[in-house]
Amino acid sequence: MFGLANELMGEGGLLYHKRHFMAGPFVDSLPADSPQRALMSFLGRKYSYSEEALGRATGRVIEVLELLNVQLARQHARGRHYLVGDSLSALDIYWATSCGFLDPMPEDRCPMCTDFRAPNLYGTPNAEIERALTPALRAHRDFVYEQHLELPIVL
Fold it and tell me: Which helix (H) or strand (E) holds 61?
């Protein structure tokens, strides 16, 4: 559980690399005097954004999604509904909440500013990541929210 949690949320993990899409292409689309631009530029510095880092980001995000997908498939093959063991763990909660960074739930379940749903902010920034974010992973996010967390999510 701790290894997969680190792959998802740790330095160099999925969320770390997803931020590179926010720090580069998204920043460039914002007006120079935008408060969002200042915030995203700050995140870029914090997460060591560079064109090289952005180039690695897609592969790393996909790698972590594949690890989670394999783990979930193994658990389902055992008749289990959770990422580890046979009950809710921190990893399930981490996945459910982190998944929104790649695929926010619909507006009725997760109201947010329309601008945040831009692919480089919340959403999948490219087709490769979109394919790696399997229906099973999305369904697991939904299952965790429906069974254990509160809906609607308010950001």
Answer: helix 51-77
The token duo for 13 is 């993990």
Q: Residue 138, class by beta-carbon neighbours within 10 Å (0-12 exposed, 13-18 middle, 19+ buried)?
A: middle
* CA 125/CA 120 separation, integer angstroms: 5
Q: Is there a contact between 84 and 144 (Cβ–Cβ < 8 Å)?
A: no
Q: How far apart are CA 95 and CA 141, in angstroms?
A: 7
- Rounded distance, CA 72 to CA 53, Å? 28
The size of the chain, in residues, is: 155
Decide: 104 and 110 in contact? Cβ < 8 Å. yes
Identify the pLDDT of residue 125.
Answer: 84
User: Is the model's pLDDT at 120 over the cut of 80?
Assistant: no
Residue 35 — left, alpha, or beta (φ > 0 → left; ψ -120 to 50 → alpha)?
A: alpha
Is residue 3 within 8 Å of 90, Cβ to Cβ?
no
pTM above 0.90, yes or no: no
| Span 63-72, average pLDDT | 98
74-115 tens-digit pLDDT: 999 999 999 999 999 999 999 999 999 899 998 899 988 777
